[in-house]
C-alpha cells in the first residue's frame, strides 16, 4: 500500500470522526466507531481498533478534546468532543472533500475515447 | 499550518510519557471491548460468543496499540532508540570483538583527525585570532624562473593602486637577543608595515599598535609591540610596561603595546615575540637601508582580498600593476612580476615546506582508515555468521530488510562513534607532535600547532560516517542472502576450496595487504630519499666544519667596532687548539635567512631585452673557501688585503661563469653590482645555497670587508666536537667582550639535516603509519586464517583420518595465507608503480619504482603473513580427527 493512499484513508476516517462528534455531541471511542458503522451501513470500518490512532491524532492537533467520564451503564470511558478549531477544520475539510469528489466524479464520467479527436 | 507544530509538540510530549499513555490506552481499549461485548449480549449472543465477536470487530489489539503509538509519538526516534539499546547490548555481549573493532577504527579515525588538524592549524587557518583567513593571500615577486621577495617601494605601489584588496601588509621574520640574567635568549620577531595589526583585526590588550607614519623613514621610530608570551615571561606581566624601553639589536626601543594572548604573528613555524615597524628595517636586517630601494626584494607580504573577489581577479589586477612597474622602472623591475598564493601554499614560511608532506600524509591516513575498515568489516562478517540464527529468526518473524539494515548500520555507528571519540583524543594528543619531529634552533622550539576546530570535528565525523557505511556494507550485503529454509542447515567451508563468504573476507584481506604494501613502499622510498639527501654532497664539507654566529648588533656594535672585533675574533679562534682554520661570512649555506641579491651588469654580456640579470651573493671573509671546503676551480680566494683599501674583487661560481661568460675564462673580467665594478679573481665550484634540492644556480662572493655587515656567521674547520668547541669558543669570546652572546654552535651536517627536516617528518610519519597499517593488516590476515581453520575443522579431521600428515596440513594453511598475501602484494605493486610518483617533491634521487623499496616491502609483508598464519596453521595440525569428525 503506497503512503499516499494511506494518507487519504486516514484523512477520511478523521473527517468522519469529526462529523460524528459534531452530529452526536461527546462520545466514547466505541460509540464513535459504532455510529460510523451504522451510518455507513456497516460498509466502512473493518477494524474498530483503528479509530484510536485517529482519535489521538485529532486530539494532538487540537481538533477534539477528551475527558474521562462515566457511561450510562456506569463504565469508565474517555469521552471525546469536538473543539472550536475542530469545527473550523471540519467545515474546511468538508468543502474540500465535496470539491474533490465532484471533480473525481466528473473525470470518471468522461465517456471512453473522449481524449482522442 | 499551525496544527502541525501543535501535533509535533504533542508527539514530543507523548514520547517522554509513553508508559502513562499506554496505561490510558489499555483502559480505553478494555472498556471498548466491554461495551461491544455488552451490546452483543443484548443482541442475544452467549457471553463467550459476544466476547469473541467483539474481538473480531475490534481487529488486533497489539496492532491498534502499535498504530496508536505511531500516531501519537515519534516512531522513528523510538525504533532508533530501540536499535541503539540493542546495539549496545550486542557490543556488550562480545567485548573482545567490540574492543578490537573500536581499536582499529580509533587508529584509523585518529590518524585522519590528526592530519586534518595539522592541515587546519598550519595551512588553512594558521593564524589564531585572525578573522577571515580564507581571504588572506601571500605575495611574492617573480622572475622568469624563480620567486623572490617584494621590494618596499613595489609594496607601497600595490597598496596605493589595487582596488580589489582590503589591505596589504608586510611581515618579515627577524630575531634579536634578549639577555635574561647571564643567559642570552634568541627571540623571533617580525618587521611589519604599520597597518599590520589593524589589517589582521588584532587589538592590543595594553597600549597601542603602530601609527601610519611609523613605517616611514630610516630608523626613525624605535618602537615595538611585544607578544603576550614575552610580556609574561620576560617582563613578568608588568602592567606598567607601556612606555618602558628595551634594547634590541643595539637600539633602545620603546614598548608601545602588548598583543593579545594566542596571537603568534603570521609565520607558520615560529611564534613571534615582538614586532617592529618597517622603518627599523636597517637595524634588524643585514644589507643596509632598503626602504627606498626598488631592487632590494626582501619583504614577505600578505594581502586580504575584498569579499567575493577571486584569486584570479586579484592576480589580474596585481599583474597589471606589475606590468606598469616594469615600464616605469625597467632597471629594477624588467622581467619581474608579482604572484598571489593561497595561504596554504605560502612559499616563504613552513607552510610551503610542510605542504607536500601533509598532502602525502592525507593519502596515507586514508589508506590506514581503509585498512581499519576492512578489518572491522571482516570482524562484522564473522559475527554476522555467528548471528545468522538471530537474523534469520528476525526475518522469519517479519522484520523488514530496511529495519535489519538500520539495525546493522546503528551497530556500526555505535562502534565508529566510540572510535571517533578515541580518535579525536588521539588527534588532540598528536596536535603538538610535529614540533617534536623538528629541530630546536637556538633554544627555541618551533611553533606548529594542530587546530581542532569545528571544521576538523565535522570532517572527522564525516569520515566516521563514510567508514561506517564502508564496513557495514559487507555484512549488510550478506543479509540479503539469508535463506529462511536453510536456517538449521549448518554450513561447511574448506580451507583449500573457497566458499562464497570466505571469498568476501579473502577479498578484504587482499585489499588490506595491497594498501599496506603501498604504504611500505612509500615509507621505503622516503627513507631512501632522506638517506640520500643527507648523505649527498652539498658542494662543501659537512663534516669537520662548525658554524655559529655572534650577534654584534644586539650588543650595539657600530661598523668600526665590529670590524676590529671580527679581526680579533678570527685571530683568537684560529689560535684555539684543534682549529684548522676559521672564517667569517654574512650567511652560511642551507641556514635560515636570505642571501643578498642584486641586479648585475657584466663586461661583455648583453642581456636579452626582457631580462634583468640578478644574482644572489654572499659576503665572505679571508679563508672562507678553505674553511668551508668549497674548492676553487681557478684563481684565488679572498685574503686580508681584499679590504676597504684594496681594489674591489669578486669570485663567481661555475654556473655563473658558464651562463654569462660562456666559453671564456671569467678571470680578470668585471662585474657590477650595487653600483660598484669588481674584478673577478676566482671561480668556485657550484654548491648548494638555499636547499639541497635546488638546481645549480649562479652565485658570487664578495669580500666581507668591502661590503661590510656587522652581523656575521663564523665557520670553523676543526675535528673537535661542537660541545667541546663551544666551551673554548665561549671563553675566547668572553675575553674580547664579556657581554657578547653566542648563537648555537652546530656542525654543517646538522645545518643540512635541519634544512631537510620536512623529509624527516615525512619519513617518521609514513614509517609510523606504515607500521600501524602492518599491524592492522596482520590482524586481518590472522583473523581470516584462524576463522577458516575453525570452520574447516571437519575437513581437516577427514584429511587426517585419511592419512594426511601434520606437515601437509600445516603447509596447506600456510600456503592459503601466502596466496592471499601474494594476491595483495601483486595488486599493491601494480597500484604503487603508478602512484608513488605522486610523492614528487619528497623524493630525492630515488626512482618512484625503486626496486629496493618494492623488494623490502615484499619481504616484510611475506614474513608478517607467515607469522600471522603460523598460529592458525599450528592449530590445524592439532585437530583431533575423532573430535573433528564428530564436530557439529
What does this structure look like?
The complex is a heterodimer of chains A (117) and B (888). Chain A is of the alpha+beta class. Chain A has one domain: Arc Repressor Mutant, subunit A, CATH 1.10.10. Chain A has helices spanning 3-24, 29-39, 50-60, 84-108; strands spanning 27-28, 64-70, 76-82. In chain A, strands 1-3-2 form a 3-stranded antiparallel beta sheet. In chain A, α1 packs across α2, α1 (3-24) packs across α3 (50-60) and α1 packs across α4. The longest helix of chain A is centred in the last third of the chain and has 25 residues, at 84-108. The radius of gyration of chain A is 17 Å and the shape is elongated. Chain B folds into 5 domains: 2-73, no CATH class; 78-124 and 365-488, no CATH class; 144-335, no CATH class; 496-540 and 756-888, no CATH class; 545-755, no CATH class. The longest helix of chain B is centred in the middle third of the chain and has 37 residues, at 350-386. Chain B has 28 helices and 22 strands. Chain B is elongated, with a radius of gyration of 37 Å. Chain B is α+β, with helices and mostly antiparallel strands. In chain B, α2 (18-42) packs across α3 (47-58) and α6 packs antiparallel against α13. The chains are: A alpha+beta (117), B alpha+beta (888). The interface between A and B is medium-sized, with 29 and 30 residues.
Shape descriptor of chain A: elongated
Number of strands of chain A: 3
- Give a short account of the largest sheet of chain B: 11 strands, mixed
Tell me, rounded to a whole number, the average pLDDT of chain B.
Answer: 86
**Separation of the first and last Cα atoms of chain B:** 63 Å
Specify which chain pair forms the largest interface: A-B, 29 and 30 residues
Point out poorly predicted stretches of chain A: 1-8
Shape of chain B: elongated
Q: How many helices of chain B does DSSP assign? A: 28
| Count of all domains of chain B | 5
Strand content of chain A: 5-15%
- Broad structural category of chain B: alpha+beta
Q: How many helices of chain A does DSSP assign?
A: 4
Helix and strand run of chain A: HEHHEEH
Radius of gyration of chain A equals 17 Å
**How much helix, percentage-wise, in residues of chain A?**
55-70%
Low-confidence stretches of chain B: 487-498
For the record, what CATH class of chain A applies?
Mainly Alpha
Report the β-strand fraction of chain B as a percent range.
Answer: 5-15%
